[in-house]
From TrEMBL:
Domain ATP-grasp: 169-393
Pfam families with a match to the protein in the record: ATPgrasp_YheCD
InterPro entries linked to this entry: ATP-grasp (IPR011761), YheC/D (IPR026838)
Protein name: YheC/YheD family protein
GO molecular function: ATP binding; metal ion binding
Lineage, highest ranks first: Bacteria, Bacillati, Bacillota, Bacilli, Bacillales
Keywords noted in UniProt: ATP-binding, Nucleotide-binding
Length: 395
């Protein structure tokens, strides 16, 4: 069923008696002969057209939309193909009677400013924690919940909260490296003495930024290594004196550095993409990331390289990955609210033990096109399922 948008009066129209959006407000009847109107072929649930999917993002310092533009455009293309439509907006765009935002037109490869009724569902893609910490964001989320609009994912998760949550799970806790949140000097010294190598990670960090490795040497000196620099301290006391302000007051966590399994002489990690589908959490794709010159992280911006999972795939690996995906999905949703999508960084030690390193509530795009394409399909399927609409595949 077609609905039409008129840019000049910022209104939606239809040839028939229809409603559009979450509120079920009737759409105006179309004026014949108005060639300015842009048609959208949508699915119907009763006489309600949709789904209208809201993608909540943030603004940059110039007031422009921020976030993963390529993801938003690919989602719009697939939604239109299946009989849906999306609008990208920020917390400041949420109005009393609807949403002002931007709608991508694939045929013209341009973004069009639009006014819409409230979406049937909202997908949280605010790109930075600072966006979620604003008063406007909190107000928007409060209003969204009052209107009972389905909303996922709830927000960023700090590392210390994540480790505390996983530690509380009898099934998942064994997969955590030894971890301390905001350790005191004596706690950190003991951790270093016990494990010799310890990761220091910012609780609010992302993409491998701000990570250090502290190493306890045989002469009791401490070597501190980042992606680019190494510093050496003759003793733990001197190390702490020089770095206390950096680590103690910036919400860092300390974590046992696992001796990793190697491939071609480099450490590797699993990058696991997970989506909610058919009443459970299922693995959408698995990528492999190996380190290059530095052995601190396997993140691509820090010199990591992409390898196919099939290089090391086993039934045991598959079972571990499927198991933690399902259990983490339910644990996250029970604790924070519905997660429709997340990713996991996991690994394996040189002794064959599995570990969970990170859980990302706002997965970045995967470099593997096969995984990213499947991601688009899974998200759109979730949009339709959660809103009660049926996809109408178009040729």
């Amino acid at each position: 069923m077609n609905v039409f948008y008129c840019p000049s009066d910022k209104s939606w129209y239809s040839d028939e008696v229809l409603s559009f959006g979450n509120s079920g407000k009737p759409v105006q009847r179309r004026e014949t002969g108005n060639h300015e109107m842009i048609p959208f072929s949508l699915s119907l649930k009763g006489n309600n057209a949709g789904p209208l999917v809201g993608i909540l993002t943030g603004e940059d310092k110039h007031g422009n939309l921020a976030g993963n533009g390529p993801l938003f455009m690919r989602l719009q293309k697939e939604l239109l193909h299946q009989g849906g439509v999306s609008i990208v907006f920020t917390a400041n765009h949420l109005q009393e009677n609807g949403v002002n935002g931007f709608l991508y037109l694939p045929a013209e490869d341009k973004w069009m400013p639009v006014s819409c009724p409230f979406p049937h569902l909202i997908y949280n893609r605010a790109p930075f924690r600072k966006h979620e910490n604003t008063q406007s964001f909190h107000k928007a989320i409060t209003n969204i919940r009052k209107m009972n609009i389905p909303f996922f994912n709830p927000g960023f998760i700090e590392k210390k909260e994540l480790y505390e949550l996983i530690s509380s799970s009898e099934d998942l806790a064994p997969y955590l490296p030894a971890t301390l949140t905001n350790p005191t000097a004596s706690q950190l010294e003991s951790l270093l003495q016990q494990y010799k190598r310890v990761y220091l990670k910012p609780s609010r960090g992302a993409k491998g930024k701000g990570i250090y490795v502290a190493e306890w040497r045989e002469d009791h000196a401490i070597a501190l290594t980042s992606h680019t620099v190494q510093s050496l301290y003759p003793s733990f006391q001197l190390f702490w004196k020089e770095t206390e302000s950096q680590f103690k007051y910036k919400d860092y966590i300390a974590q046992e550095a696992i001796s990793p399994a190697l491939i071609h002489g480099s450490r590797y990690d699993f990058r696991i993409l997970v989506h909610y589908a058919d009443h459970s959490y299922k693995v959408t794709g698995i990528g492999l990331r190996a380190s290059k010159s530095q052995q601190i992280t396997t993140h691509i911006p820090n010199g990591g390289k992409i390898l196919p999972y099939t290089l090391i795939q086993t039934k045991q690996h598959d079972q571990f990955i499927e198991d933690i995906a399902a259990k983490l999905g339910y644990l996250l949703s029970e604790s924070y609210g519905f997660f429709g999508e997340f990713s996991i960084d996991a690994g394996i030690s040189d002794t064959g033990d599995y570990y969970i390193y990170e859980v990302n509530s706002k997965p970045m795009s995967f470099d593997e096109e096969e995984i990213e394409s499947k991601r688009i399909q899974q998200l759109c399927a979730l949009f339709f399922k959660e809103t009660g609409f049926r996809s109408i595949q178009k040729e």
